[in-house]
Protein: Heterokaryon incompatibility domain-containing protein
Amino acid sequence: MGQCRVYQRDELNAGVEYATLSHCWGSTKYLTLSKSNLQQLKTQIPSEDLPRTVQDAITVAHDLGFEYIWVGTLCIVQDDLMDWEREAAMMTSVHGNSSPNIAAAGARDGRDGYFFSRPTHWNCKLQLYNGHHALSCSAAPVSLYSRCLSGMSLMERGWALQERLLAVLTLHFTTTELFWECNHIIACESFPERLPGGTMVPLGFLHKRTIDDPMWP
Structure:
């Protein structure tokens, strides 16, 4: 990541596009905005003092073409109660106007970052025949959504729920794949059109032994 610094609102043009960060802070202490370092961080943020999750979020935002990203720990003066109250009252506009919200869904705290060693995709492509026509479909574990997204630590944070609901688009970086969510759909790398509804089939039904079953159609 390149050099970055803290900007105040009056330094930015109205309507400027920006991303936001949604993440678990964790208990580890790392660089945050305070009364004592505000002027210093307005000049430059020492990137080596930032946790991996924030560094990765800045990289993702830059790669997506965004010059600015809102990070709570760096955009709210942490030891100033008045600033906390003022900024908390503006969360609707901060996250509602972001494009997109970049969620570190797979990170347990600031040390984990966004990028993980990932397994291969969950789904497999199938051709089903009804005697006349072939139907293309995909099969994936029923737990795809719950295991990869709703079961993540970030989903347990009240602030993260607010950020997710307010944002026009959220990109969820999980430990297995990337999900994207807006008001209309939730999709992922395995199912880029949208997460399927579909039919749930017990795994036992697909075991090889069932093919020899005389009741097999």
